[in-house]
Amino acid sequence: MDFYDKDLVSIRDLDRDHIEALLDLSEEMIPYAKGEKVDRMLDGKVLGNLFFEPSTRTKLSFESAAYRLGCDVIDVSEMSMTSISKGETLADTIRMVDAYCDAIVLRHPHEGAARLAAKFSINPVINAGDGAGSHPTQTLLDLFTMRKAKGSLDGLNVVLVGDLKYGRTVHSLADALTMFGAKLTLVAPETLQMPDDIYAGLKDKGCNIRKESDLNNVIDQADVLYVTRIQKERFPDPAEYQKVAGSYRIDNVILREAKSDMIVMHPLPRVNEIAYEVDSTPHAMYFEQAFNGVPVRMAILRAIMKEDD
């Protein structure tokens, strides 16, 4: 598949063939991500990392991915030290950073920021999360984790739990899983259910999807339990957050009802939605999921920044 010099703003920019090609390339990247092999295929390239929101896994895994491939990184994550603090617009910031690098990774609190950045950048823009909108690279590493654990993405029964309203990871993931005929169950308080427009769009695409408020009703059917944090920072009213904080908690008691090969995933960071006792069970897949960000993002950088010979 030809990804060279292309933006990656939304998982909707990709079809099933694109996704599978990137997952196959990610598999090839694993020994390089672990340092078992070395290939400086992006030597001489420069990646601009623009993070307008706090990030641990996404930021560090992009940096690790770039360095593993021999690519240098310009890091912009302390906005008070840039002209943004003087009132410079996002468009002008993107124009300037674009002049200094070969691709831009952008995380921004406002939905649509990555699409705007792609409009003003000559070089490719990779969306590392824009508000409650999209997070395509997280989706790709989630799919990669599921495929490695389950052998295939086709027809999986995936239960999405927690903040489905503000959680950009589940918005992108639901879109992608629909391409593979997944059955989706949305478990959340009514106030945090999947937005109506996204839900309707999934239905229109033929997704087998339903809403549920009680996890106990569906835990025994899940192939994948995808847990999300209730995101306090997305709530305009702190009182509304307090009403739903701690709505769901995964522990060994609830996992007694799960299939023996069911996996628990989480985009992290977790607060209290997964008990630490779960970490030592065969179900726990979230730390491997976090590592998978490196080979997957290596594959994305290689596909976008290196022209095939």
Overview of this structure, please?
The protein has 309 residues and is α/β, with parallel strands linked by helices. It has two domains: 11-134 and 292-305, Rossmann fold, CATH 3.40.50.1370; 136-290, Aspartate/ornithine carbamoyltransferase (Rossmann fold, 3-Layer(aba) Sandwich), CATH 3.40.50. It has helices at residues 16-33, 57-68, 90-98, 113-120, 136-150, 168-178, 196-204, 238-244, 252-255, 286-291, 293-305, and strands spanning 46-51, 72-76, 103-108, 125-130, 157-161, 183-187, 208-212, 224-227, 263-265. The radius of gyration is 19 Å and the shape is globular.
How do the strands line up in the largest sheet? 7-6-5-8-9
User: Quick one: biggest sheet?
Assistant: 5 strands, parallel
What is the strand tally? Answer: 9
**What is the end-to-end distance?**
13 Å
CATH topology of the largest domain: Rossmann fold
Low-confidence stretches: none
Number of domains: 2
Brief synopsis:
This protein is of the alpha/beta class and 309 residues long. It has helices spanning 16-33, 57-68, 90-98, 113-120, 136-150, 168-178, 196-204, 238-244, 252-255, 286-291, 293-305; strands at 46-51, 72-76, 103-108, 125-130, 157-161, 183-187, 208-212, 224-227, 263-265. It has a 5-stranded parallel sheet with strand order 7-6-5-8-9, with helices on one face.
